[in-house]
Design brief:
This protein is mostly helical and about 120 residues long. It has helices spanning about 5-15, 20-35, 40-50, 55-70, 70-85, 90-100, 105-120. Helix 3 packs parallel to helix 5, helix 4 runs antiparallel to helix 5 and helix 6 (about 90-100) runs antiparallel to helix 7 (about 105-120).
Length: about 120
Amino acid sequence: APDEALIMASLGLAYLRQEDTVPARRYLLKSVSLQGNYAQSRLGLGYVHLQKWQYAQALSHLEKSMKLLPTLEASFLLAEVQQNIGQNDKARDLYLIVASSDRTGKLGQLAQSRLQQLKSK
């Protein structure tokens, strides 16, 4: 089933784990074009665009991912985008959610660190 959205998403996410964003983006875009309501595809694309400083595209995909399936990962990435585009209040709110939801986890601790950075600004 070469045109199966879930397979395309899985391939894209596998390439992301290998930090190979070019094929990851290609497979994730294919997944979204086949079935636009798969949160992981949107999350992966948001991450790819964030890594390339394409904040408008990252914001769009991450917001859609959050509407489909709110996750800590999506919240954290969305906070990063908001911080990068100067929306520090929105970033702070999202970092607070991640930090309070994952107090002892890696993502929660990273969110706490980002909150400290925002306070010093």
